[in-house]
Sequence to fold (245 residues):
Amino acid sequence: MDKTLKLLAVLLIAGSMLSPAAFAKNENARDSLVALGDSIPFGYNLGMNNQHPSKEAYPFEIGEEADVRVRNLAVPGAQTEGLLDALQHSQKYRQAIQHADYVTVSIISNDLLTILRAAVAESEGDSVRFQELLAAKLAEDDAFASLAAILQEIRTLTDAPIVLFNVYNPFQVNDSFHQVADSVLPLINGRIAQLSTAFSDVYIADAYSEFGNNQAEYVIMGDIHPTEEGQEVLAELALEALGFE
Fold:
């Protein structure tokens, strides 16, 4: 009986010594998701400040639902050229992608907003001139070429599935720009979808269709960023694209 008790004591001690390492191993063994992009995956304006990515942003929503580790490398204000440069030259970005099991990308919105603002400024209130300028600037812009290069760079680093978000309409229905956005976003999102077909395992998350005209619920009032409900919608799209739902 004494020998049995001693054996049990040894096993308990050994178990207590091994448990932390075992838990750490399990944590490290979990699949990982790397989120790339701008203020949308960052979760801008969801918290008290914008010093760190919000835990309410869709990358962390995905992490919670799919039980994956999340590295959120989104940067507010980022555009396609900046993300491409980071993927090509930043070891932080390159190593994160190399170790990723899943990647999400949401990046072209700021490029488009820059074009929109330039067209507004140059048109000086002339609606016909505005439409002409907007069309010309969209045709001239190299954001789509940069986006293609981003996907190509990711593919040189990993064969992990990529979820590529298209662009939702960020303007409230009663905003004059809502109709303008609806007139150009289907074409823009069509180009994004076409571009994605050149790469293996790239899945479009159709934020445009899912948001529809529900900006009052999905977009922060007086802002262009998603509400918590909007972030949940984006997370659900990614989960579905990756086969978790």
Q: What stands out?
A: The CA atoms of residues 34 and 183 lie 32 Å apart. The longest strand covers residues 32-37. The chain has two domains: 1-30, 31-241. Strands lie at 32-37, 69-72, 102-106, 162-165, 202-205.
